[in-house]
Amino acid sequence: MDASARAMVEAIHGTNTQAVLYLSGGASQALGWLVSVPGASNTVLEAVVPYSRMSMVQLLGKVTAQFASRQTAQDMALMAYNRALKLSQPGYPVLGVGFTGSLASTRPKLGDHRFHVSTRTCDRLWASSVTLSKGLRTREQEDRVSSQFLLKAIAYACKIPATFDVELTDSETPDEYEMQFDEDQELEQLINGQICFKVYPFLSDMSKAERKIILSGSFNPLHAGHLKLLEVATSILGEGYPCFELSAENADKPPLTVSQIKQRVRQFENVGKMVIISNQPYFYRKAELFPGSAFVIGADTAVRLINVSQSNQKILL
Hints:
Layout: H1 3-13, E1 18-24, H2 28-36, H3 40-43, E2 44-48, H4 53-60, H5 70-87, E3 94-102, E4 113-120, E5 124-132, H6 139-157, E6 175-180, H7 183-191, E7 197-200, E8 212-216, H8 224-237, E9 241-247, H9 258-271, E10 275-278, H10 283-289, E11 294-296, H11 299-306, H12 313-316
Parallel strand pairs: 1-2, 1-3, 8-9, 8-11, 9-10
Antiparallel strand pairs: 3-4, 4-5, 5-6, 7-10
Helix pairs in contact: 1-6, 2-6
């Protein structure tokens, strides 16, 4: 790793962005660069290398027509983003990174030497494809170039100006694609199940606590009892970060609309409290979505959960 790459890694680690990376078929040096510089734990939540065909199939949950493709990289980035949401500290910006490549191997390849990179944040999907000049580099050199490109993509997603050039020739022009999302589009993606939840921090201080202390409800409206219940529960439980959770999906009613969600979110903005919008109405699904969290429930919910005579017990659990 040269000095410019190291400086960029240090800049990435200096941000609050927390990332999950799914890499296959190249860019292995980038992962080494990221974790070899002090501060890696600030950035890297998890890195997975699904290298075999079956590993990739299990990761994606499907068999794709072509593993080394832009669409596969985008699918990997979206899955990494959702994984990062689950692993990140409350309220911190998260990043999903997908990389897939077909680089030089022990045997000559009939197709192009190429790689595809995609990043996903709360408001942006970015992807790029690069076709390398076949025979120009060794496998190690192609891996280095793809690693440089990946590192630059991560820096861009973290809003860090790139300070070094990727060692591409003039003919190796990246084919880039970018899509921006506004709040309404992001909430539509949540309702449709593309993303698992959205966090509204509404706080000036960011907690380093990993455990969430969650009070779920419909909050129609949010009232003083909700605020006091979470406050008391947090004081009893000790370490943890208090937040409210509202599901866009309902076990008994139609899902909330985007306008309804935004209206209820404004209540939390007015009192400066964190709220998470999810798409899981069932508590066992919430537990999977927020592993290691403590859930706070009111008396009415507690009765419904433990009373075996309640006809809707299965719905709640």
